Amino acid sequence: MDQATHMTREKILYIDDNETNLLLFYEMYKEACEVFITTSKDAALEQIKSGEYKVIFVDYLMPEISGLDFIMQAKQISPDSLYNILTAHANLEVAISAINHGSVFRFIEKPWKEFEINRAIREAVALFDLKVQNKNLIKSIRQKNAELTLLKEQLEEENLYLQEEITSTTGFEDIISKDPAFKSVLKKVEQVSGTMATVLILGETGTGKELIARAIHKLSQRSNKSFIKLNCAAIPETLIESELCGHRKGAFTGAVEHKKGKFELADHGTIFLDEVEELPLLMQPKLLRVLQEGDIEKLGGD
Predict the structure, then answer these.
(1) What is the rounded CA–CA span in Å between residue 222 and residue 133?
(2) Model pLDDT, residue 112
(3) Closest by alpha carbon to 74, among 93, 60, 58?
(4) 3-state SS, one letter per residue, for 130-166
(5) What is the C-alpha to C-alpha distance for residues 171 and 161, in angstroms, rounded to an integer?
(6) Average pLDDT value for the chain
(7) Max alpha carbon distance in the chain (Å)?
């Protein structure tokens, strides 16, 4: 026999091989709760699978299965539900053991009294809700901790770049020259610094390409943002894409955390790619996309 009401109150399940007990229980609680009663172990387990039951009452001795064995199976499906044993064959030792191990919430002797059932329902619902709140709180705390850890790592990484920038910052005033040709270069620096244009700086090693790049940055509206530099020739070919574009956790072996690339760190600032001609061929189309579209694609990401 299976019967149920369809209400928005607490959901309660009762399995017993005595139909009289089931009907009495149903009539007592059908107005206050959403009640499912059954004599079938399989029907009870299927019902538990189909919906969240906060409180479950189980007869101790049934033809198909014992109450404790049923609870062990049901807990695999709904571990947070509170299980109560109704029995006319009280065994104090079994009851204490089951309660201590968390298998059973209450042992209630038959014939049960209404106030005992009411108390069991009230306390079980309160405990169930508390368990759910605690789980959600723990989940939220872990998520916040993960976010804070990631933010901390990103800030530390950005701070390293800022410290390096502070210790090595040089401005336009540090470039001294009387050569007319070089003064022409400085005039172009002034002109281009007021734009968002991409600049190609050519020159032999040691002629001051980084000084020119820093001067452009310092004179630009981006001067209060990061100046990020990268020597393309110093980065292994297998790591250059991760260095420039960043990667997501798990993108490749050893990628245990999310990482910002140099382009992202330089967002709204300036990035100086030294020895850019040393970029691997496969990376050059991606650099072109950054220059043309302003888009990056992280390894393992969108």
Answers:
(1) 47
(2) 83
(3) 58
(4) HHHHHHHHHHHHHHHHHHHHHHHHHHHHHHHHHHHHH
(5) 17
(6) 83
(7) 108
Amino acid type, 21: N
Alpha helical stretches, state H, the chain: 19-29, 41-50, 67-77, 92-100, 114-168, 180-193, 209-219, 240-245, 262-265, 284-293
Token pair 């172990």 in the structure block, residue? 41
Distance in angstroms (rounded) separating the CA atoms of residues 26 and 201: 85
Higher confidence at residue 1 or residue 117?
117
- Label the pairing between strands 270-274 and 34-38: unpaired
Which amino acid is located at 221 in the chain? Q
Is 174 a residue whose pLDDT tops 70? no
Place of tokens 């901390």: 152
My answer on whether omega of the bond before 111 falls inside 30° of 0, hence cis, is yes
- Cα-Cα-Cα-Cα dihedral sign, residues 258, 281, 238, 165: negative
Helix/strand/coil percent split, the chain, to 5: 50, 15, 35
CA 125 to chain centre: 29
Q: Give pLDDT tens digits for 273-289.
A: 999 888 888 888 888 88
User: What is the pLDDT at residue 43?
Assistant: 92
Q: Residue 159: what residue type? A: N
Non-local (6+) Cβ contacts of 261 within 8 A are 242, 243, 244, 245, 246, 247, 296, 298
The enclosing H or E element of 260 equals: strand 259-260
